[in-house]
Sequence to fold (83 residues):
Amino acid sequence: MMQPPCKKCLLSELNDSDIKKEIMNMVGKIPDKDKVGADTYKSRLDVCRQCDDLIEGTCLKCGCYVELRAIMKRSKCPGKKWK
Fold:
């Protein structure tokens, strides 16, 4: 039996998976100059965790993996929820 999708979960909180490893690898390859600070990243992810459009680390509004979108300075929330 398949497990239902995890609502309000980030990829980093899910069991090990190939997608999680790939996204975390991509996050690690982004140059520091293009990343937001740790506090901003945490704040953005906290907003995502509370959003009804988050399912298994994916934003249902745009289809992105929120951990990848949230780390980049030039990114914006498609629901305009980030400060």
In short: The mean pLDDT is 88. The chain is about 35% helix and 5% strand.
